[in-house]
Structure formats: structure tokens, C-alpha cells
UniProtKB/TrEMBL annotation:
The lineage of its organism: Bacteria, Pseudomonadati, Pseudomonadota, Alphaproteobacteria, Rhodobacterales. Keywords: Aminotransferase, Glutamine amidotransferase, Transferase. It comes from Falsihalocynthiibacter arcticus. This is Glutamine--fructose-6-phosphate aminotransferase [isomerizing]. Its EC number is 2.6.1.16. The keyword Transferase applies. SUPFAM superfamilies: SIS domain. InterPro entries: SIS_dom, SIS_dom_sf.
Amino acid sequence: MSTGIIQLRAEMARQHSDALQSLEEARAQAPEIAQALRKRGRLVLLGMGGSHWINRAVCSYYRDAGLDATAHVVSEYMRSPLPNDPAMLVTSQSGRSGEVLRLIARGQVSPVAFGLTLEEDSPLAKALPSLIGTGGPELAYAATRSQLITLAQHAAILEALGQDISDIEAILRVGPKQHSSPEAVERLERAPVAVMIARGQAAQGVMDAAALCLMETARMPVFGLEAGQFRHGPFEMIEPDSAIVMLRGAGPNSDDLATLALECLSYGMCPIIFDCSGRGPVDGAITLPLRTQSGLALAFESLPAVQELIVTASSLRLPDAGLPRRSTKVASAEVA
């Protein structure tokens, strides 16, 4: 087992307890943040890499709370900021991502801005009032623990905005549902390409984050695609040996991925389905049943399970899985 996989497993082993403590500690600052966001009315969620995908996962729930909220990667936002200084939540697990440092140095931070990070002594935490996650810096190259902690920090703010997060807190207290699927592991281990698919809100953010994690850990081509986008073109790319990984949540029939899964099966392509729907399994698919969840709680239920599959399969694909060849944990800015 590579050093990279050992580091990933160490992070994952404590992510639920660290996320729960981060949630509890964030509750002290969350009402102040929520009040400031509510007063401003408009919100941008800014991050890079996995931080951006977690922002995407939570963005619609800020809209549900009555805010005009959008999520952007920092490098794009610096080039084309929104007018009239919307409030900002700036996310960086290290607090020192190059683009975040440039955003601050250029004076492009809104007068109403807060940070979400794991590092108390980071430039982000020193520049902005920030929620600090529990457990210190994340050591593994691919993000796992930091993503669940960031979700928990957002959950504390959303609770202060009036959202019910009791299901989320229960998931963190109980811990992950244990599952084992040698068939799913083998399919992902041997696939030349993977597509991570979900439909909307938290589910899509989770699968986008998972796609990045798989790229970083197994060094394979991976697409994170919303279900509709997958059917509009990329459906032509996949082959019977492709890994098609779906996240199926509870909700209205119109959002169920069963029809898309059956279509894949009709062309000889067997999807792996992380199933939180509470519905019956899709005949012929590889199903990993999870506890029934929808909304933001779906992210907390499914993300650790998807991470587990990724890390297990990656460890079998590569002798040095999880160890970067050209990158570092904290990426420098690409912005000139």
C-alpha cells in the first residue's frame, strides 16, 4: 500500500468525528455570518479544486434560504467579478491556495466576506474572519476529510439561516455505513475512463468532487457530469468497459436515475450506483445501498462511501496511488 493511500485512509478514518466537532464549533460564529449574508442578500461562494465542488454542492441550499447565491472558481471570478460587491464565503482547506492569496492581495474581497479553512494560521484565516475546521491540516494529496468538514461548516451557516440540519448531525454521529462490493471495485480498477453522474444540488457537487478525487488518486481520465449533460453528447464516448458511477438520491420520480441506468444497460454498459433513493435496485446494475437521504444530508451520507470505493480501486490500479507526480497539496496560482 502506497504512502498516499495510507495518508488517505488516515484522513478518512477521522473525518466524521472531525466534521461533527467542526459543526459544533462553527455554531458560535454562524449566526453572525448568517446575519451578514442575510443583510447583503447576494452571496458568492468562491474556491478552487475540491473546495469549488463542495461550494457547488451547497449553493442551492443558500438559495433555499432566500439568498441570491452562486458558486465560482476564484481564478474566473478575479477576471470577471460580479457587480455591487455581493457577500463572499471563500473556501480553501489550506487557507493558502494561490488564487485565494491573489484575490486578497488584489483587494477583490467584498466588504462582507468570511473564510472557511482548516488552518488557523493561514493567510486566509488572518485576512478574513473564518470558520476553522477541526483536526489541523489535511496531509493526503487528494481531499477527503477537508471536504466533509467544509460541508459541516456550511451546514452550520445554513442552520443559522433557518435550515433543519438534524439529519446531517445524525449522520455524523453514527458514522459511515460500511459496505463492500468487490464487483464495483474490480470494475473501477480496470476501467480506462470513468464518468461520475448525479442529478442536481448536493448530489452533483459530491460527484464532481469525487471525479476530481479519482483523477488525483488513480491518475485516470474522469468526467463529472450532471445526468442531463451526460446524455447530451458524452453518452457517445463511453464503452462497455467504462466505469459509469451514479449517485441516486431520494426524491421525485422525475429526478430518479433508474431510467438512465437502464439505458446504459441496454447498450451493454453496467453502471455502479450508490443508492440513497429508498427505491428498489436497478436490475443488472452494481448497487451499493446506502441509507435513504435527500437534500444536503445526501452529501454527508454518500461522499465518504464514494471516497472509499475510489481509494480501494486506486490502490489496486497503481503501486503509487495517491502520490502526485507533478503537483503539490497547495497549488500555486495560475493567474498572471
